[in-house]
Amino acid sequence: MGRHTSIYMFNKEKAAANLYEDLQHRTYHAGTFKKFIEDRNKEFNTYNMSFSSILEIIKTDANLLTPDDLFEITLFLSNHIYNLSKQEDWNTSMKQIESLYNHYGIIELFKLPTKTVCTAYMFQYGNYTEYFPLDEIKGDDGGANILSEDFLRFNDYVILVMKRIIESKLNDNDDQLTDEEEKIIEAIKIENKDNSHLFEVVENELNFLIDMASNDNDGPYSQTIYYANVFLSKAIEMKLKIDIEKNSRIVIVDSY
Description:
Helix content: 55-70%
Number of domains: 2
Shape: globular
Oligomer: single chain
Strand order of the largest sheet: 2-1-5-4-3
Structural class: alpha+beta
Largest sheet: 5 strands, antiparallel
Number of helices: 11
Order of helices and strands: EHHHHHEHEEHHHHHE
């Protein structure tokens, strides 16, 4: 099994109304969610997932789902779509999942494309939290549920690191940022002008990546450099989408 990393936020009202009701009562093409959880607990001796506990969290506030809870939900829904549309192409299946997520109040902000890119991104999360510890609800398998404000601060760090990679011309992509992206980056710098420690961490990470990538080939360090523009663009996209008044928490699902 490869590594799968995705970042989510929620519309808790939709989740409480639609996701709660369907996971409790609906029989999907993949069966019922209750049976799915029972089978997963039997399949893995270390599992102790609770169907009723997951439903209660969704009913109360989906923002409090653990990464493990959300992984089981998204895996179950993906199985449902797979069984529903075996003859469909990949793009059609992805549109069906997106539509289903929207109905259930699950908003997928970023789905990392490969195992190595997942590792590269989560290395950045690990590096940031080493210097700037966060209050996390951690998953047993990986990932974290964190306050949106904390995620956005990490997200700003990602933007700054990727900006330094791009302007240092470390890859052959000839990445060009838009005027809007440059304005957002400049605003982040101004907002953090008194946080010298942040900029020290960014520069140290840049130098570390330069040193490691020379012997890394297609590993996570070189992929961080190669995907710098993608990481930066997605980070800016997430920054613009997340409203801390509406989206109180962010869940990073990171499963092996």
